[in-house]
Specification:
elongated, mainly alpha, Serine Threonine Protein Phosphatase 5, Tetratricopeptide repeat, 538 residues, 3 domains, 69% helix
Length: 538
């Protein structure tokens, strides 16, 4: 098979698998980064993204620590405005480019063409990839993989050809990867793994890698950490069943790490029960999923040191290094998410391909002996094709779950019914459809699961839902809670309106005047005061 034919097949596979995403609407993180982000519509904001202030102090830009990701969304907005088709098309193109880059990386490593093709096809079609490709708001992972793979290709090519000018693009792509997503900071460790396995480290290369490590540490400390620092002892971990937190004890800490590892192992080898959001029961004693995670990690480490195959060792090492930032060594607010695997999958897909070929070769041998024939040579590749077709079917079908916000979270709540964030997002989706009763039901369920999660926001939504259904007494109950704890103009206006409708002009006037004290130009409060004035004159 020619390499050009393989490239065409890979591109066709990506577009065939994700063609049905082009009709999908915005979902999930798209609301935060695109629909409700007043930063991306204005090109003059590009200067702010790369200004000195943005690089030296934290300030309120959504995804400000990932400026290239935001820049790509601004470019899409310039062309497509709020039409999701173009954003989905860009994601699909970026995924296709990453598939091709992985294929070229395997070619640089002198891996046989058929093995490189099947590895890249696994990366293209694996159902875990669906979340990243379907949600433009998760484009950071696509860009980080694009620039990390590019840097790795130039690094290895420079070593093989002994040409120093190849290392200038390595530096450039590493910086671009860092500005796309912070997980790329571990890329120099992948360089080191390659050098240890295939080349001797010279003094010049040692200085070069030390510079890369310094750059990564500088990025984490001075640009990223200050923006996203959080109190790991107090933050609500929505993927962990309330009230346990990862740092409650050493047991819960290790349970979190190895439960997440076991979850990812299952998702990679058996991607059947995937979800947009997960929920884990982290117990205060060592649990069975955590034990499976421990045994799996020990087995992986043992295989790494036992095998003499340097390519296998390299891809195992690369997978582990890329996985490290999302491994919950430092507990993540999102304990596990499919999108976290997008970069580690670059190494895992080669491992999976080798495992499948080994298994199908043994199956081919058994069948040949059983049927007493030698005509089954090459049967393993037919098995691989059927395996890839199964992945294609699962991925293609999963794209429909991302059709719109309501479809996504109705499906997700079936898979993670006790995740408070899922219940909250489904309630928001119901509100968008004016299904106030269904929204109220989900919010009440969420409050029972986790009474502290987005407490004031939940009270406000419950108050608004009851107000829309005509249950003013219930609405006032929730509005009163917010007014006591942390009043905001919207709640004060809503409460004042209810009081005005009930004939309590004095109470409503007092509330509207309170709004105008803080926000003199609030149109709703001004209109309310005007209404009461007209009523009194009559």
């Amino acid at each position: 098979m020619r390499k050009s034919l393989a490239v065409g097949l890979l591109v066709a596979a990506v577009f065939a698998t994700y063609a049905n995403t082009l009709a999908n609407k915005f979902t999930s993180e798209d609301y935060y980064l695109i629909l409700n982000n007043d930063f991306i519509p204005y090109w003059e904001h590009v200067g702010i993204l790369f200004s000195r202030e943005n690089f030296t102090s934290p300030f309120a830009i959504r995804a400000g620590a990932r400026p290239l990701t935001l820049l790509s969304l601004m470019a899409d907005f310039g062309i497509w405005k709020y039409r999701p088709f173009g954003y989905h098309l860009t994601n699909m193109v970026l995924h296709a480019l990453n598939v091709l880059l992985l294929f070229f990386l395997l070619s640089v490593l002198k891996i046989p063409l058929i093995h490189a093709l099947f590895t890249a096809l696994l990366y293209a079609l694996h159902p875990v990839q669906g979340e990243v490709v379907n949600v433009p708001g998760f484009r950071a992972d696509l860009l980080a993989a694009l620039f990390s793979l590019s840097a790795l290709i130039f690094f290895i090519t420079g070593l093989v050809r002994r040409k120093i000018f190849y290392f200038l693009p390595v530096f450039l792509f590493y910086v671009l990867a860092l500005l796309s997503k912070e997980v790329s900071v571990v890329l120099p460790a992948v360089f080191i793994i390659y050098l240890l396995l295939f080349r001797r480290v010279s003094k010049g290369l040692g200085i070069f890698l030390c510079f890369f490590l310094f750059l990564g540490i500088f990025f984490l400390v001075y640009f990223w950490a200050e923006r996203y620092s959080y109190d790991i002892f107090r933050v609500i971990f929505v993927n962990v069943k309330y009230p346990v937190r990862p740092f409650d004890s050493w047991i819960t800490y290790f349970n979190t790490i190895f439960t997440a590892f076991w979850h990812y192992a299952k998702s990679l080898f058996f991607p059947v029960f995937l979800s947009h959001d997960y929920h884990f029961v982290i117990s205060r004693v060592f649990s069975m999923p955590a034990l499976f995670g421990v045994f799996s990690s020990i087995g992986l480490a043992a295989f790494f040191f036992a095998t003499r195959d340097r390519l296998l060792r390299f891809f195992i090492g690369a997978s582990v290094i890329f996985y490290f930032p999302v491994s919950n060594i430092l507990p993540l607010f999102n304990t596990a998410a499919d999108r976290y695997l997008y970069l580690p999958m670059t190494g895992f897909c080669y491992i999976l391909m080798r495992c499948l070929i080994w298994f199908f070769e043994r199956l081919e041998t058994v069948l040949s002996r059983f049927l007493n024939t030698d005509s089954l040579s090459g049967l393993k590749y037919y098995f691989l094709v059927y395996f890839l077709l199964a992945f294609f079917g699962v991925s293609f079908n999963r794209n429909y779950f991302f059709k719109d916000m309501l479809t996504l979270y109705e499906q997700t709540v079936r898979e993670s019914p006790e995740n408070p964030r899922v219940c909250y997002n489904l309630a928001v989706a119901y509100r968008a459809e004016h299904r106030w009763r269904d929204s109220t039901k989900e919010l009440e369920k969420m409050t029972a699961l986790h009474p502290l999660y987005k407490r004031e926001s939940v009270w406000q939504m419950l108050g608004e839902n009851h107000q829309m259904m005509g249950h003013n007494a219930e609405a006032k109950k929730y509005y009163t809670r917010i007014i006591i704890t942390n009043p905001n103009p919207q709640v004060l206006n809503s409460m004042a309106y209810i009081l005005w409708k009930e004939g309590n002009d004095r109470g409503s006037l007092w509330l509207w005047e309170k709004v105008l004290e803080a926000y003199p130009n609030d149109l709703i409060a001004l209109k309310g005061v005007s209404l009461i004035g007209k009523t009194r004159r009559k």
